[in-house]
């Protein structure tokens, strides 16, 4: 595979942004018919490299060869024209247009001077058939799940008859079945001679699907190797450039803390029609409660009730022994409940505000309009959390949208830590985040619970992660709580067994 | 040196940069083409001159632009301000009433229905109620702002007509003229009103967290709700505020022309106000805003109008020229142009 003539060769690519060397002398080769994993922590330069390749950025120096000929890629449109398409992590299609329209937008086939709708529909169905996806292509895209939308985005790239497809974290929002389906499609594309660059943080996926792996760190090329000859542990150490002590350290936290602690919040028969069936829940001070379950099992719906995002139509919530009504997030915040939402970009970040403003916002909300935090105090608080949880940003005034995904997540966390919450709800806090930051966040969660006595609800699709840091695990399936596990019951096998519907 | 350069770069990237540049260009043009553009004379203890005139005539637009800035910062828009100008003027004028009577002794007496403060207050309250209407449609019913405020933009003029009973109400009561024609310390009262509104809003935005919350909502209203910001409440408030600003402008205008004309008062002002805000570098997508930049933007619009009149160009051409200037400013503000400019600056550094 590696011996084949590379379809794309990037040589000595350099790219700097003010204050940052994003890429330094990076070489990259992609052969036809290979799936090439691009690995690295957030800020390693993966995205920048891809953006140089797709014409979003111009490289400061270095050369790109397509089929052996030097080429200057002027714009994303140009890149598409020469056969390089990208499918991004956050699906960037038009939710209000139909599936078929999304696939053909910008390239509508014309017949007799009019758009050939019949052809659009037929071809859209044909290409989706490849994915074994039987959906109504006339329906609005927004009607379908993120997974389907992702497939549609790939279908769109295929229609351009791409030679090179770049997949940026395509599986971040997919469940196992959907991921497998995607891999089938990828293998098929590979057999057709299409080259695929695959960016992901999921190690399992990388080992399952890729032929070669290129590892970047801090804008430098670390290595390119055949996947089969690269042990996992070596890959990880190449990515983070240090040994895995951080992760080992976590094993030292006892599973028993929090057992005898005071009950902070109690939910009795809480339910919301169509969202989550009635459930009881007890949250204790200083414990981490994990919520496990498949996508759509009701995890998010459960915590939405605890944060006042959705109104419960039966049951009650008791905080510190008193029944309370949570009608809005503001009410929840007043009871010192915080929630980091699953989709960071839409519901978490205020992209056009600075890191400082993002961090102090929740604290300011608890103080109301009139007691405004002084500029000096704001700076002090922002700086404190930037140092404390190691947010990588040039300064406090940087717009938060310019930060990498992991650091954005840390900003959202910092925002809630600033109000010193009693209950911290984290909905997929490590989704799409590199291993180093992931470990940082997990460690922080454990410290907050055991050190500060904070009660933490931790939702994650990675069962392994849930078992590692939770003292108690609630298992959900089909929008209902089906089990609560403690102690030695907390292991992957047990959780999967429960989700699969097994009795105790 | 470095810090000076840093400050210059910061200024170049600030919202106020382009409108100030446009204003300076207009001033330079006027310096050459309009005699005595920069002259300010004192007649009867009052200041006169083109510059004073621009400030005075631009007062209503500046005030409306302030309110519009806040609405736009929440990712909204208020198309009804022109109609609210007419409504407020109609309310005030009909309350002041003012019939000219001639006493048996032959004296001319002007009678009013109410005093000036009552009329002013009534106009503001009525406007606030209409603002609530806009705010309710946008924040509670989630109707897109451009549609929600379009309703009042159309219906508002009808309401104003109803109040004036389809007539142009002439105002005879002199104390009311202070608002739009009076002078204080030699300076037009209208300028003081602008300063007061600017000061109050400025303080409210800087000294309280309201400005931050508005920017947060404009930048991402879903995330703002997740943080506990009462986004409905704040959206509601900015529309009320915008209507009150429009009402103040309406009072100045009716006082200035001594009449309430439901058909023409504030006609198309919403467009000038939006133009001012955009010229001020404020994004229609909401988020970060600067009211001072919007006020400068309004001054550019007003200077343009005054220039056209003073240069003796026929008023019909005014709109064409306005469009042309807007085009230039929008190009100057575009990201592509800024990028090119930055490249030029960098090249200059290397040489």
What report would you give on this structure?
The complex is a heterodimer of chains A (504) and B (351). Chain A is of the alpha/beta class. Chain A has 18 helices and 22 strands. Chain A has 3 domains: 242 residues, 3-Layer(aba) Sandwich (Rossmann fold); 163 residues, P-loop containing nucleotide triphosphate hydrolases (Rossmann fold, 3-Layer(aba) Sandwich), CATH 3.40.50; 75 residues, no CATH class. In chain A, α13 packs across α14 and α13 runs parallel beside α15. Helix content of chain B is 70%, strand content 6%. Chain B has one domain. In chain B, α3 runs parallel beside α8 and α9 packs across α10. Chain B is mainly alpha-helical and 351 residues long. The model of chain B has no long low-confidence stretch (mean pLDDT 86). In chain B, a hairpin with a 2-residue loop joins β6 and β7. Chain B has a two-stranded antiparallel ribbon with strand order 1-2. In chain B, strands 3-4 form a two-stranded antiparallel ribbon. Chains A and B meet through α11, α12 and α13 of A and α9 and α10 of B.
Percentage of β-strand residues of chain A: 25-35%
Structural class designation of chain B = mainly alpha
Kindly report the name of the CATH homologous superfamily of the largest domain in chain A. P-loop containing nucleotide triphosphate hydrolases
Strand content of chain B: 5-15%
Listing every helix as H and every strand as E from the N terminus to the C terminus, the arrangement of chain B reads: HHEEHHEEHHEHEEHHHHEHHHH
Largest sheet entry of chain B: 2 strands, antiparallel
Class of the largest domain in chain A, according to the CATH hierarchy? Answer: Alpha Beta
List the strand order in the largest sheet of chain A.
6-9-10-3-11-12
């Amino acid at each position: 595979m590696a011996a084949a003539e590379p379809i794309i060769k990037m040589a000595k690519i350099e790219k700097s942004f003010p204050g940052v060397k994003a890429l330094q002398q990076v070489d990259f080769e992609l052969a036809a018919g290979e799936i090439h994993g691009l690995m690295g922590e957030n800020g390693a330069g993966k995205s920048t490299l891809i953006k140089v390749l797709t014409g979003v950025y111009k490289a400061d120096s270095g050369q790109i060869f397509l089929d052996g000929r030097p080429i200057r890629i002027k714009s994303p449109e140009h890149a598409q024209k020469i056969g390089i398409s990208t499918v991004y992590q956050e699906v960037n299609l038009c939710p209000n247009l139909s599936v078929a329209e999304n696939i053909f937008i910008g390239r509508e086939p014309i017949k007799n001077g009019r758009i050939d709708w019949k052809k659009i529909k037929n071809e859209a169905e044909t290409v989706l058939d490849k994915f074994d996806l039987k959906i109504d292509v006339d329906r609005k895209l927004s009607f379908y799940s993120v997974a389907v939308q992702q497939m549609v985005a790939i279908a769109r790239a295929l229609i351009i008859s791409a030679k090179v497809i770049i997949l940026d974290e395509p599986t971040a929002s997919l469940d196992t079945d959907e991921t497998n389906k995607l891999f089938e499609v990828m293998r098929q594309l590979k057999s057709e001679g299409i080259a695929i660059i695959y960016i992901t943080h999921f190690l399992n996926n990388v080992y399952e699907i890729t032929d070669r792996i290129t590892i970047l760190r801090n804008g430098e090329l670390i290595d390119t190797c055949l996947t089969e000859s690269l042990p996992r542990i070596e890959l990880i150490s190449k990515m983070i450039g240090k040994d895995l002590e951080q992760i080992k350290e976590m094993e030292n936290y006892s599973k028993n803390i929090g057992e005898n602690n005071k009950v902070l919040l109690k939910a009795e028969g809480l339910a919301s029609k169509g969202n989550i069936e009635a459930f009881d829940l007890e949250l204790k001070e200083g414990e981490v409660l994990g919520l496990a379950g498949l996508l759509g099992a009701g995890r998010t719906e459960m915590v939405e009730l605890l944060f006042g995002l959705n109104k419960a139509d039966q049951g009650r919530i008791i905080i510190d022994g008193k029944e309370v009504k949570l009608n809005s997030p503001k009410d929840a915040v007043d009871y010192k409940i915080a929630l980091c939402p699953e989709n960071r970009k839409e519901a978490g970040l205020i992209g056009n505000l600075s890191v400082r403003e993002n961090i102090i916002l929740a604290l300011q909300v608890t103080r109301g309009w009139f007691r405004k935090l002084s500029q000096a105090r704001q700076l002090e608080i922002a700086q404190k959390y930037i140092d404390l949880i190691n947010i990588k940003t040039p300064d406090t005034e940087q717009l938060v949208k310019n930060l990498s995904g992991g650091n954005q997540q840390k900003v959202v966390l910092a925002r809630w830590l600033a109000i010193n919450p009693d209950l911290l709800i984290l909905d997929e806090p490590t989704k799409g985040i590199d291993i180093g930051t992931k470990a940082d966040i997990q460690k922080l969660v454990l410290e907050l619970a055991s050190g500060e006595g904070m009660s933490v609800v931790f939702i994650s699709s990675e069962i392994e992660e849930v078992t590692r840091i939770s003292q108690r695990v609630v298992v959900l399936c089909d929008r209902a709580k089906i089990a609560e596990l403690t102690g030695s019951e907390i292991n992957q096998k047990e959780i999967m067994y429960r989700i699969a519907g097994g009795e105790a | 040196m470095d810090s000076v350069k840093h400050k210059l770069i910061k200024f170049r990237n600030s919202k106020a940069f382009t409108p100030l540049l446009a204003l300076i260009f207009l001033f330079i043009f006027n310096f050459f083409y309009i005699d005595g553009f920069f002259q300010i004379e004192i007649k009867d203890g009052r200041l006169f001159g083109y510059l004073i005139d621009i400030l005075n005539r631009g007062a209503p637009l500046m005030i409306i632009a302030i309110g519009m800035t806040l609405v736009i910062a929440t990712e909204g828009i208020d198309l009804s301000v022109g109609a609210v100008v007419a409504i407020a003027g109609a309310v005030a004028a009909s309350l002041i009433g003012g019939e000219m009577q001639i006493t048996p002794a032959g004296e001319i007496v002007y009678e009013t229905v109410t005093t000036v403060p009552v009329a002013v207050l009534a106009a503001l309250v009525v406007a606030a109620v209409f603002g609530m209407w806009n705010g309710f449609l946008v924040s509670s019913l989630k109707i897109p702002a451009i549609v929600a405020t379009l309703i009042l933009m159309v219906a508002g003029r009808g309401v104003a007509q109803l109040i004036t009973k389809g007539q142009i109400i002439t105002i005879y009561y002199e104390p009311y003229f202070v608002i739009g024609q009076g002078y204080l310390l030699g300076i037009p009262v209208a300028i003081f009103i602008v300063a007061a509104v600017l000061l109050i809003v400025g303080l409210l935005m800087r000294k309280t967290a309201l400005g931050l919350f508005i920017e947060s909502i404009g930048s991402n209203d879903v995330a703002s709700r997740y943080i506990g910001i009462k986004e409905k409440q704040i959206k509601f408030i900015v529309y009320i505020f915008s209507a009150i600003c429009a009402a103040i402008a309406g009072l100045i205008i009716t006082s200035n022309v001594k009449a309430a004309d439901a058909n023409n008062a504030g006609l198309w002002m919403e467009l000038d106000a939006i133009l001012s805000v955009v010229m001020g570098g404020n994004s229609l997508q909401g988020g970060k805003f600067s009211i001072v930049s919007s006020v400068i933007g309004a001054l550019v619009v007003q200077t343009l109008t005054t220039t056209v009149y003073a240069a003796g160009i026929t008023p019909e051409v005014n709109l064409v020229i306005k469009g042309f200037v807007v085009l230039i400013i929008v190009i100057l503000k575009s990201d592509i142009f800024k990028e090119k400019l930055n490249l030029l600056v960098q090249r200059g550094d290397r040489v």
